[in-house]
Amino acid sequence: MSPVLLSVSGVAKSFRMHLRGGVELPVVQGVAFEVAAGECVVLGGPSGVGKSSILRMVYGNYGIDRGIILVHDRDSGAMRDLGAGDPRLVLDLRRSSIAYVSQFLRAVPRVSALDVVAEPMLAAGLGREPAREAARGLLRRLNLPAALHDLPPATFSGGEKQRVNIARGFATGHPVLLLDEPTASLDAENREVVVAMIGEKLAAGTAILGIFHDDVVRERVATRLVDVSHFSARQAA
Ligand SMILES: Nc1ncnc2c1ncn2[C@@H]1O[C@H](COP(=O)(O)OP(=O)(O)OP(=O)(O)O)[C@@H](O)[C@H]1O
Ligand SMILES: [Mg+2]
Description:
Protein name: Alpha-D-ribose 1-methylphosphonate 5-triphosphate synthase subunit PhnL
CATH topology of the largest domain: Rossmann fold
Family: Belongs to the ABC transporter superfamily.
Bound molecules: adenosine-5'-triphosphate, magnesium ion
Enzyme class: transferase
Order of helices and strands: EEEHEEHEHHHEHEHEH
EC number: 2.7.8.37
Domain ABC transporter: 6-236
Number of strands: 9
């Protein structure tokens, strides 16, 4: 049995709508699943059910109302509860253990694509030159024209930005990888590259939690599906 690297249990989340008099909008409850090394667990269910929200909770972007989110800490080898809301623990785990490819790249002004990709490798302790060299290799593999490597991604096309985002998320050997529709705006050739990169991560023992709207990609990468409709707090309300 492969070790479990991500374990979510009893997680509930509602949004407080400040612009609507602080009304509580429940989204999910009783969220529970595990992802083991070498697994790609795909979150499914209709639009608005809470798939992206679950990824953001697991990455520590959204706080949770209750529950436990245990992430394998590569530094200590222990499972640590990221759901407890300790911001230092969240930053620590992001540096060492948990990577996230969001649906859209949040570009930092004036930082080149190459440095956006190299940054998590530097944070994880790699030297500047090897990190930039590895970043260049990843961007090349994803067919990002060399002329763009040294430019900030702010003006890139949707698919170019997404490839920078993917390169950044895949740059480190973090044990847990979160993917929110990474192939959504890619052409067939680059989709193939990403499917291959996912396969390599799985072979290396990474635990992947992802969302894939593209049925063909999902069929090829998913080792298991988790239907988020089962956790919807709206049906129950
Ligand atoms: N920051 C937020 N504030 C308020 N409501 C939010 C916030 N983020 C998400 N929601 C709400 O939570 C629900 C779930 O959204 P989420 O983005 O997780 O859905 P999804 O399953 O990823 O949908 P899609 O397949 O369309 O991407 C939606 O009703 C959304 O409006
Ligand atoms: Mg979504």
